[in-house]
Amino acid sequence: MAGVTSRAGRPLDGILVADFSRVLAGPLATMTLADLGARVIKVERPGIGDETRTWGPPFTSHGTSYFEAVNRSKESIALDLTDPADLHLARELARRADVLVENFAPGTLDRLGLSYDEVAATNPGVIYCSISGFGREGGRELLGYDFVVQAVGGLMSITGEPGHPTKAGVALVDVLTGKDATIGILAALAARARTGRGDRLDVTLLTSSLGAMVNQAQSALEHGRAPTSMGNKHPSIAPYETLSCVDSPIAVACGNDGQFRRLATVLGMPSLADDPRFATNSARVNNRAPLIELLEGALAGVARSEQSRGSGAGPGDRDGADTGGDQTAAIARAETAGSLTPLTAAAWVERISAAGVPVGRVGTILDGLALAESLGLDPTIEIGAGFTRQVRHPVSYTAYETSTPSPPPDLGEHDEALRAWLSAAAPQPTEAR
């Protein structure tokens, strides 16, 4: 917002979230709301808590990395929903909440008197968000974990090398579902501010997965053919993949013909951009194999080593070299023989980036954090003494603040204060921390 000189608090100040969710998708959604200023009360089973409290290794001095990653800035109350007194407190929390998030098996909360209809009867403005694997109608009996949905929803079929369906390296469907839930909740809160009405939201792992496959799903719908895995290649763009250097791979992404021309030039093969096989993106996609052979040859300095073995090709020998029919090798020998040395991936990244082509060395998560830090993006935050730093809320705001984070709670850490508050008719007390 132009002209803003001071921040106006946190976007969700005053919003109370009853978090009946566990594992990843729901807790990620509610942690995001907490980051934005909402007060989040996490309801957990006595003596057990969220399953991810025991999902390790890796373990930390306070529990597990899995639990800590998506449960900062929350309060925890341990309630046995099969106990009438505790169930009464859970219903009271739902009555007071602006937002309720749950991911029980469909129908479970209905049997406990915590269905949307029953909660909305005493709290008509509630935003009630249910997260499930496959929905509460035809898929209500199906159990949905991220790994299973990656398989049945098609994501595995387009990930990894051909013939080897592969899951994403993180529980991506859970993460996407949690973010979709957050979007839905924020939209419903905005609508409620205008109309005063609450809403019932249903978010499923399957629909979030399908929605996230964007162009791949659209291609399947339009052509009636299921896309297949291509490793690190892009089905519609080339070169848009990892390329091998002498020490490690780099990721090169040429999104248009101008970028490809600049790449060809920096690799010492400017005429590639005029070769009919590579002059346009569609041509490059159709001739991907010879293109990648040329590019990786240049990156590895293969052409120079061929000359040193007496190939007889030099800058003036293109026509003679081409008479054998090996046009790909001819271009490589003609334009790069003797002109390149095998550079490291880091050196190539520097040169290619300087030419205005998107490129990066394939790194680790620690490399990514270090890069963000070096660029001034402040990717991590302190959450409390004795706790490891965490990846922060990914959006920076000009007009608003985000919450000062607090550590993930111990199981039932806030029982005493929350039970007293829920048992009383008094106004909401100051937060437990």
Supply database-style keywords:
Rossmann fold; alpha/beta; disordered C terminus; formyl-coa transferase, domain 3; 2 domains
Q: Report the span from N to C terminus.
A: 31 Å
Biggest sheet record: 6 strands, parallel
* Overall pLDDT level: 89
How many structurally independent domains? Answer: 2
How many distinct helices? 18
Structural class: alpha/beta
Which homologous superfamily in CATH is the superfamily of the largest domain? Crotonobetainyl-coa:carnitine coa-transferase, domain 1
Q: Quote the CATH topology of the largest domain.
A: Rossmann fold
Question: Low-confidence segments, ≥5 residues, pLDDT <50?
Answer: 1-5, 303-325, 329-334, 426-433
The general outline is elongated
Q: Quaternary status of these chains?
A: single chain
CATH architecture level-2 label of the largest domain: 3-Layer(aba) Sandwich
What does this molecule look like?
The protein has 433 residues and is of the alpha/beta class. The chain has 2 domains: 243 residues, 3-Layer(aba) Sandwich (Rossmann fold), CATH 3.40.50.10540; 122 residues, formyl-coa transferase, domain 3 (2-Layer Sandwich), CATH 3.30.1540.10. It is 39% helix and 12% strand. It is built from 18 helices and 13 strands. It has a 6-stranded parallel sheet, with helices on both faces. Strands 9-10-11 form a 3-stranded antiparallel sheet, with helices on one face. β12 and β13 form a beta hairpin. The longest helix is centred in the middle third of the chain and has 24 residues. It starts with 15 loop residues before the first strand and ends in a 10-residue tail after the last helix.
